[in-house]
Amino acid sequence: MANLFDLTGKTAVAIGGNGVLGSAMAKGLAEHGAKVAIVGRNLEKAEEVVKEIEAAGGEAKAFSADVSSKDSLLQAANDIEQWSGGWDILLNAPGTNSPTPFFELDMDEYDKIMDINLKGIVLTCQIFAKKMIEQERKGSIINISSVSSTTPLSRVFTYSVSKAGLNSVTQFLAREFATQGIRVNAIIPGFFPAEQNRKILDQERIASIMSHTPMQRFGEAEELKGATVWLASEKASSFVTGALIRVDGGFGSMTI
């Protein structure tokens, strides 16, 4: 059974792998044998994640890239290819958020969030999936969505829009890449305190979240490792594509 989740010999590219959630998922891939490229705008944070992976006996390297810039991503892809020869797993975990009320939202802020959360994923899939196809590598693309993608959350209009779009991108590309041996799925995390949502987690909102989460707690970043490794494994999830996998403590199943 352990062999189902063995990623030895695989290379994973973790876009946003320097964030709280992205780094936990990247570490999970490394713990199961994958060689991991940690990609983020903040190279210093990416290098910290690399050190943690190496300290645990894994192999990783940090790369700098801005997901809203195609040129930046192309350069990162070239650098990663020189380092590893290619990749089999693409983890898309960049993200940003804002609590700006709808009528106060200006288009600069809207564009920034959409560029990172949605356009950035489209760009990474264009660049990294194309190379996987050219190298005839079967593989897995894992996008990180949100519970706000299915039922929009209050206070986070643009974030909810971007994540709903990401679900559509995931399912479109699952169909597009299936015959090429590339599976495309998304993880829908529930509430995991991270950089992009701490600013809106006041006591009232926390109480509301708990009342809608049957497990009555926040998730821990490490609790995303299992779904990530499962979706990354060619053996364990070989017939899974176009799926939106909830890891949300029951949030999506809650009613009155």
Tell me about this structure:
With 256 residues, this protein is of the alpha/beta class. It has one domain: NAD(P)-binding Rossmann-like Domain (Rossmann fold, 3-Layer(aba) Sandwich), CATH 3.40.50.720. Helix content is 41%, strand content 15%. The protein has 7 helices and 7 strands; from the N terminus they run βαβαβαβαβαβααβ. It has helices spanning 20-31, 43-55, 70-84, 107-134, 157-177, 203-211, 225-232, and strands at 11-15, 35-40, 59-64, 89-92, 139-144, 182-189, 244-247. A 7-stranded parallel β-sheet has the order 3-2-1-4-5-6-7, sandwiched between helices. Helix 5 links the parallel strand 5 and strand 6. Helix 1 packs across helix 7. The longest helix is centred in the middle third of the chain and has 28 residues, at 107-134. It is globular. The mean pLDDT is 94.
Helix content: 40-55%
The biggest beta sheet is recorded as:
7 strands, parallel
Based on CA atoms alone, the radius of gyration comes out at 17 Å
Category by helix and strand content? alpha/beta
Sum up the overall morphology in one term: globular
CATH topology: Rossmann fold
CATH class: Alpha Beta
Distance from N terminus to C terminus (CA atoms, Å) equals 40 Å
The mean pLDDT is: 94
Number of strands: 7
From the coordinates shown, what is the CATH architecture?
3-Layer(aba) Sandwich
Q: What string, H for helix and E for strand, traces the elements in order?
A: EHEHEHEHEHEHHE
Instruction: Identify the strand order in the major beta sheet.
Output: 3-2-1-4-5-6-7
Please state roughly what percent of the residues sit in beta strands, choosing from under 5%, 5-15%, 15-25%, 25-35%, 35-45% or over 45%.
15-25%
- CATH homologous superfamily name? NAD(P)-binding Rossmann-like Domain
Supply the number of structural domains. Answer: 1
Protein name: Gluconate 5-dehydrogenase
Pfam family, one: adh_short_C2
Family: Belongs to the short-chain dehydrogenases/reductases (SDR) family.
Keywords: Oxidoreductase
